[in-house]
Hints:
By secondary structure, the protein is an alpha+beta fold. The protein has one domain (3-157): CATH 3.30.1330.50. 30% of the residues lie in helices and 30% in strands. It is built from 5 helices and 7 strands. The protein has helices at residues 41-53, 59-62, 75-88, 111-122, 140-143, and strands at residues 3-16, 21-22, 25-26, 31-33, 92-101, 129-134, 147-157. Strands 4-1-7-5-6 form a 5-stranded mixed β-sheet. It has a two-stranded antiparallel ribbon with strand order 2-3. A hairpin with a 2-residue loop joins strand 2 and strand 3 (25-26). The structure holds magnesium ion. Magnesium ion is lined by residues 10, 12, 41, 44. Magnesium ion binds at residues 10, 12, 41, 44.
Amino acid sequence: MDIRIGQGYDVHALAAGLPMWLCGVQVPSETGFVAHSDGDVAIHALCDALLGALALGDIGHHFPDTSQEWKGVDSKILLRKVCSLVAERGYSVSNVDITIALQAPKIGYLVPEMRECLAGVMGVDVSRVSVKATTTEKLGFVGRGEGCEVWAVALLKQ
Ligand code: MG
């Protein structure tokens, strides 16, 4: 059996009046993410972890933000496409783990829904999908409410 690990990282800036999508779930919020796509920074980090595990480049390579095709795109579509690339190479997702750093709003109550959503898109059992949320204790750009930072790791098996 071949085992591959990948890690992903993404940041999006916050601005008033924009939608906030995280892990495929719309978060009730007065601020949202500045982005070419729907700005789902968590799915973007997850896609980079999955791509990284197979050395397939990054999300910007596969879905360039200069392309009109991906303007406003639902990031779940991007995740589905990345999962297809993984499956085409004979790999399946063993597990993924995502950490979201966001000062506000609080999102912990949405974690079960986020896990269900990602598991559904990836076609894996929800027990293989971990989502964690933290603040940065008001430190740094996340703490000042200027943006959201996400780390993801993925383990694939062939
Ligand atoms: Mg992004």
